[in-house]
């Protein structure tokens, strides 16, 4: 991607989290553990779903897409954050900043659409169970997953086109731990009202349309569940949606607060903490939310671990003979 704006700024300084050296070391260890745990959790989910025929269902197909997306999501920000936590000179090149911004926003927009797709899948499963197999066929699942990725990146290309028209001539200090839209636009030295307006409108489109689809889906789901006569039936139906509803609530509440604003957000410490929530901690928590409330994934993992332990025990007994 080319950036045609002429700028005297060749790099940005990321203010990050100023602190004492001892605290920086603690933060480095904490963020490293979070990154390793997040990537490991999502790889386990993808491998479990892909290797077991029992989990070859639309719900798990979309879940594996979400897991892969979140591996990419945290890999855009946390490695650079780890470097800058300990670095005395916390810098990122102009092209590196624009690249990080592009992929971070693209992946976040893709997640918005993918969560709406997953809500639609749950709607069909609960409200139209007899037609589920016919509607959610494999070809449609691929098309829906692909549309979430394509729409996320397409929206971001438009955003980046207008951001690339903005000139940066100093100061070049970003009061954040990564390159986000508002902190970057705050440094523009020309009128960026058009870029801000386009960013705001597209943020509303990519956030509110998926949120509307998700809300309508869950209104229909709740209405259908309430009509189920048995308590066990209601609990079983709701349990298939509870984890996704939790993830949706956390994701949309934070992103709407950060990005659906008519004016550029001041990059203050409170915003950095909220950004930490959705950019670092939420991707780590999501696999726990999905797995803790999903009996099929738990059963599959337990059976796999039990088989592996039995094989190891037999192998050790054979070796000891």
Task: Please give a structural write-up.
This protein is mainly α and 321 residues long. 75% of the residues lie in helices and 3% in strands. It has a 3-stranded mixed sheet with strand order 2-1-3. Helix 1 packs parallel to helix 9 and helix 2 (58-86) packs antiparallel against helix 9 (269-292). The longest helix is centred in the middle third of the chain and has 34 residues, at 94-127. The radius of gyration is 22 Å and the shape is globular. Residues 1-7 and 310-321 have low confidence and may be disordered.
Shape: globular
**Biggest sheet layout:** 3 strands, mixed
| Number of E-type strands | 3
Give the helix tally.
Answer: 10
Order of helices and strands: EHHEHHHEHHHHH
Question: Using only CA atoms, what is the Rg?
Answer: 22 Å
Spans with pLDDT under 50 lasting ≥5 residues? 1-7, 310-321
Give a brief outline of the structure.
The chain has 321 residues and is mainly α. It has helices at 21-51, 58-86, 94-127, 132-135, 138-163, 181-185, 193-226, 231-259, 269-292, 295-320; strands at residues 11-14, 91-93, 173-174.
List the helices and strands and how they pair.
Elements (H helix, E strand, L loop, with lengths): L10 E4 L6 H31 L6 H29 L4 E3 H34 L4 H4 L2 H26 L9 E2 L6 H5 L7 H34 L4 H29 L9 H24 L2 H26 L1
Helix pairs in contact: 1-2, 1-9, 2-3, 2-9, 3-5, 3-7, 3-8, 5-7, 7-8, 8-9
Labels describing this entry:
3% strand; 3 strands; disordered N terminus; disordered C terminus; 75% helix; mainly alpha; three-stranded mixed β-sheet
């Amino acid at each position: 991607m080319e950036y045609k704006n002429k700028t005297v700024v060749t790099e940005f300084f990321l203010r990050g989290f100023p602190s004492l050296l001892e605290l920086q070391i603690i933060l480095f260890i904490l963020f490293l553990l979070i990154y390793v745990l997040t990537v490991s959790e999502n790889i386990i989910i993808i491998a479990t779903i892909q290797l077991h025929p029992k989990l070859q269902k639309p719900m798990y197909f979309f879940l594996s897409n979400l897991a892969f997306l979140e591996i990419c999501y945290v890999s855009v920000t946390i490695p650079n954050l780890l470097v800058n936590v300990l670095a005395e000179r916390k810098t990122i090149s102009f092209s590196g900043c624009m690249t990080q911004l592009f992929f971070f926003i693209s992946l976040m927009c893709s997640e918005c659409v993918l969560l709406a797709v997953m809500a639609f899948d749950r709607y069909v499963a609960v409200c139209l169970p007899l037609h589920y197999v016919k509607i959610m066929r494999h070809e449609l699942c691929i098309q829906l997953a692909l549309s979430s990725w394509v729409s996320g990146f397409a929206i971001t290309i438009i955003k980046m086109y207008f951001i690339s028209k903005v000139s940066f001539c100093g100061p070049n200090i970003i009061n954040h731990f990564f390159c986000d839209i508002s902190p970057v636009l705050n440094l523009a030295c020309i009128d960026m009202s058009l870029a801000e307006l386009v960013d705001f409108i597209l943020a509303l489109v990519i956030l509110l349309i998926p949120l509307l689809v998700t809300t309508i889906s869950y209104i229909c789901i709740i209405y259908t569940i309430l009509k189920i006569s048995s308590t066990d039936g209601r609990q079983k139906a709701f349990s298939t949606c509870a984890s996704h509803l939790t993830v949706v609530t956390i994701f949309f509440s934070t992103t709407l607060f950060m990005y659906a604003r008519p004016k550029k957000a001041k990059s203050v410490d409170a915003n950095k903490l909220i950004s930490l929530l959705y950019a670092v901690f939420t991707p780590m928590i999501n696999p726990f939310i999905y797995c803790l409330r999903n009996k099929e994934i738990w059963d599959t993992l337990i059976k796999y671990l039990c088989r592996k332990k039995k094989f190891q025990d037999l192998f050790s007994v054979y070796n000891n003979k």
